[in-house]
Design goal:
The chain is α/β, with parallel strands linked by helices and 311 residues long. It has a single domain, classed as Purple Acid Phosphatase, chain A, domain 2. The model has no long low-confidence stretch (mean pLDDT 88). The chain is 21% helix and 22% strand. The chain has seven helices and 14 strands. Strands 1-3-14-4-5-6-7 form a seven-stranded mixed β-sheet. The protein has a seven-stranded mixed β-sheet with strand order 2-12-13-11-10-9-8.
Length: 311
């Protein structure tokens, strides 16, 4: 599993699922309050107007990505997963954050190194850009090989995808390289001897999530793409078997034996596997970086998961 310039040397196995109670909640709501509103506006300003001016002079993150990238692996058997579906391999890539921190050629080499893992389906979990939808255009060629997965490559929108430009432009650009966007809708996919429903919900912060529309055609999704992991408790209500998400960057910086430096989940869903009732959630640290071109203790990752029927 390698490219002439990128070799995936760092691997880890996800630890067992964290069992949730349904009552996890921080005092601070990361989606509301004056502090968070100011933080969000600052994030939009920096991502859309400041960082692009530095792009020609400063691009340190690609160097870090090549050396610290981790392929995270897990085998998971969600209790609600349909028993007649053959084992399904999913490659989850989130939070690419194209722009100043990620050169297209670095992303292309990484994608070429990942695809020999032979995923049946590729899930791209939002925030493909940092400040404007046009940032996706230079990386379309790098992303194109993902659509070679037998069940396709699928995308859901994240909060950064709404920072600048129309989402329809981003969806059209991704479609031009075979990556289809699921925004409050689902598709039924056949795999081996059975079928499963794949859905995508709109971003929780800047989008307009619509669960009724999501379920209108095919019912409850078995696999849900949701950029923000805080969708999970609603996914449990709607009997979703497995939700995959990003958004948190794992905190982006975490000191030894300490919590993430910045928490983006109201429910502390920072990274890894979570379970509540018969529903499960996987949260990826993601590939990219925001605000500063650095990660520590929460290195960038893609997750390769084998989903098997419950016993």
């Amino acid at each position: 599993m390698q490219d002439s310039h990128i070799v995936i040397r760092r691997r880890r196995q996800l630890p067992p699922a964290h069992e949730l109670t349904g009552h996890e909640r921080r005092r601070l709501n990361p989606r509301r309050g004056a502090i968070k509103v100011v933080e969000r506006k600052a994030d939009i300003f920096v991502s859309r107007y400041l960082l692009p001016r530095l792009m020609r002079l400063w691009n340190p993150y690609s160097w870090l990505l090549k050396r610290r990238f981790t392929l995270t692996e897990t085998t998971i058997a969600p209790p609600r997963w349909p028993k007649n579906v053959d084992p399904l391999r999913v490659l989850l890539i989130t939070d690419i954050h194209a722009g100043i921190f990620l050169r297209p050629d670095t992303l292309a080499r990484l994608v070429r190194a990942l695809m020999p893992s032979n995923p049946h389906l590729v899930a791209i979990g939002g925030d493909i850009v940092s400040g404007h939808v046009n940032e996706a255009k230079p990386i379309l060629g790098a992303l194109a090989p993902l659509s070679a997965a037998p069940l396709g490559a699928w995308y859901c929108l994240g909060n950064h995808d709404y920072f600048g430009g129309a989402r329809e432009i981003l969806e059209r650009d991704l479609a031009s390289v075979g990556i289809r966007t699921l925004r409050n809708r689902s598709v039924e996919l056949k795999h081996g001897s059975g079928t499963f429903v794949l859905g995508g919900i709109d971003d929780l912060i800047l989008g307009k999530p619509d669960w009724r529309r999501l379920k209108a055609q095919h019912g409850e999704p078995h696999l849900l793409l949701a950029h923000n992991p805080d969708h999970f408790y609603q996914a449990v209500v709607h009997n979703v078997a497995l939700t995959v998400a990003g958004h948190t960057h794992g905190g982006q910086i975490r000191f030894p034996n300490g919590p993430p430096l910045v928490r983006q989940s109201r429910y502390r869903l920072d990274e890894g596997i979570y379970a509540l009732g018969e529903s499960m959630l996987i949260v990826s640290r993601g590939l990219g970086s925001v605000v500063i071109p650095w990660r520590w203790g929460e290195d960038h990752e893609a997750i390769l998961m084998d989903i098997v029927p419950p016993a």
